[in-house]
Design a protein that fits this description.
heterodimer; A: 308 residues; Alpha-Beta Plaits; 74% helix; elongated; B: 227 residues; alpha/beta; Rossmann fold; six-stranded mixed beta sheet; 26% strand
């Protein structure tokens, strides 16, 4: 009995090929939007986290600061909640870093080698949350601490502003993605709903004969549910397949930086690592959308045609 | 077998009643002809029996099933116990004769093996053994109606309802169909036939129930056509 229901559903899927393709196409669009929003969201979050990790605060020390003073300062800084790590960069280390950074600039290197090391020693602070620096700032601004410092503290201010902007943009993109997904999901449900209604209309004679011969509701409804199940499954496979193709082309032709914030390599890796989970989610969404709309469409038909 | 007790049916509150306090008792294995002008209420009566319509008031009991207590989800099971033949045949045009008859068994979950056994036998009863592979459109009206009868009786129902089965047929083919119905009745099936065909009613000499304006005008054991 169940076998017949599945066979009939499969036959309908093939017989209504054009309607099935239309429904499938719109479902592919919906699922692709879901998939891309999902991956883009993960990628943006990853990028922002990476940039945030690079934010640090540098406290520059006078050459006259003694080891004891320095250790005391490090201890005080470490007591501040928001400070995750304190790293001491000596004058020599600072110079070595500077030379390494400018190794292509021969003139600059020559100039540096002829003078005494002009770079101050510093403490590089890593923070838990770069957004909260008030406590740290007031500590560093106390006159007692100020006397140990050679330069203005660097708060990576410019970078932080840029990061805030990106974070805002990401939130916007995420919200737009959710709205887009919802809109397309609705369209998708309506179109599949319509497809099944048209299929019901096309086969109304057969269905009324089935009812008069005493076919159960599930025997009548089953093939339509199977049909939309097949639409959902095919759409999910196509959407994941498309994504696969796009990533393999994109990661070959674009390098990581060419899309700015959208690190295509990370996105591609993210997709590959979670391939089966993504496929399962896509299949789940496809099946739920398909079967729900078909369920409602057949429910309406069955209710309309019940005994008066 | 069939009991209607003061059954009325109104389609809308404003409009007149299609059936008014109809009471009818049909014994098992009876062959009953229902006659009446168009719109008299014959089809409504049959639709009440197949539960395509619900009565506005009154009691219907068919084969021991009280329709008042029948839940919607049990309607399919009821319909499997009643064979129905329609004036317009209601065959599936894209299926062969064999498939059309087999369809009635498929939808109730009969095994393919049993279907292969049963269908040819039933086609033999209605005289269409050699037309198994034909499509409905290749058959004459009479043959199509016999396919429909085969489909209606393949599940061996206790009751066969034939709603003007000869309405679209010429006299010769009409008689072919009536003969098949008589044969089925001889096998023990209760037959309920509605018709406009005066000749058939008069020659059959069976019980005739005449309906006029939704009421039973006469009910005679060996009746004739008197509209």
């Amino acid at each position: 009995m169940l076998g017949r229901v599945f066979i009939n559903g499969g036959i309908n899927f093939v017989r209504n090929a054009w309607l099935s393709i239309a429904a499938m196409a719109i479902m592919v669009v919906t699922l692709s939007i879901v998939l891309f929003s999902f991956i883009a969201n993960a990628t943006f979050s990853h990028t922002i986290q990476e940039i945030r990790d690079r934010i640090d605060v540098s406290v520059f020390l006078l050459d006259s600061v003694t080891t004891q003073q320095r250790d005391q300062l490090i201890g005080q800084l470490e007591d501040i909640d928001n400070v995750r790590a304190v790293e001491y960069i000596s004058k020599d280390q600072a110079l070595a870093d500077y030379i390494e950074l400018n190794k292509d600039n021969v003139d600059l290197q020559l100039a540096i080698s002829q003078t005494e090391n002009p770079l101050p020693a510093s403490l590089r602070l890593k923070l838990h949350n770069p957004d909260i620096i008030d406590q740290l700032k007031s500590f560093l601004d106390t006159p007692e601490i100020q006397t140990l410092q050679s330069d203005e503290t660097s708060y990576s201010g410019d970078r932080k502003e840029a990061i805030d902007k990106i974070a805002k943009a990401t939130t916007f993109i995420r919200q737009a993605g959710i709205i887009g997904v919802l809109i397309f999901a609705c369209i998708s449900v309506l179109i599949i709903f319509n497809t099944i209604q048209m299929a019901i209309f096309n086969r109304r004679d057969e269905l009324s004969i089935m009812r008069l011969l005493g076919a159960s509701r599930w025997y009548i409804r089953g093939p339509f549910l199977v049909e939309s199940l097949l639409i959902g499954i095919s759409a999910a496979l196509i959407s994941v397949g498309l994504c696969n193709i796009i990533f393999s082309i994109a990661s070959g032709t674009l390098d990581a930086s060419s899309l700015g914030l959208l690190d295509i390599n990370y996105a591609s890796r993210y997709f590959e690592e979670r391939y089966w989970m993504i496929l399962a989610i896509q299949l789940g969404i496809g099946i739920v959308i398909g079967v729900t709309s078909s369920f409602v469409a057949t429910q309406r038909y069955l209710r309309l045609r019940d005994t008066k | 077998m069939i009991l209607l007790d003061r059954v009325s049916k109104a389609y809308s509150k404003k409009g007149g009643t299609a059936l008014e306090r109809i009471s009818l008792h049909i014994e098992p294995k009876e062959f009953v002809i229902i006659v009446g002008a168009s719109g008299a209420g014959k089809s409504t009566l049959l639709k009440l029996l197949t539960r395509e319509e619900k009565p506005t008031s009154g009691k219907i009991i068919v084969g021991g099933i009280d329709y008042e207590r029948l839940h919607d989800r049990d309607v399919p099971r009821l319909r499997r116990r009643i064979g129905v033949v329609f004036q317009d045949f209601k065959l599936l045009p894209n299926k062969t004769v064999y498939e059309n008859v087999a369809f009635a068994l498929e939808i109730i979950g009969v095994s393919t093996k049993e279907i292969r056994n049963t269908v040819p036998r039933v086609l033999d009863i209605v005289g269409l053994k050699d037309k198994e592979k034909s499509m409905p459109l290749e058959l004459s009206g009479g043959e199509r109606q016999r396919v429909a009868i085969a489909r209606a009786i393949v599940r061996q129902p206790k009751i066969l309802i034939a709603d003007e089965p000869t309405g679209n047929l010429d006299p010769k083919h009409a008689w072919d169909v009536i003969k098949v119905l008589e044969k089925i009745n001889r096998y023990g099936t209760t037959v309920l036939l509605t018709t406009h065909n005066q000749d058939i009613v008069n020659k059959l000499k069976r019980r005739v129930v005449t309906i006029t304006d939704g009421k039973i005008q006469s009910d005679e054991a060996r009746g004739s056509y008197n509209l």
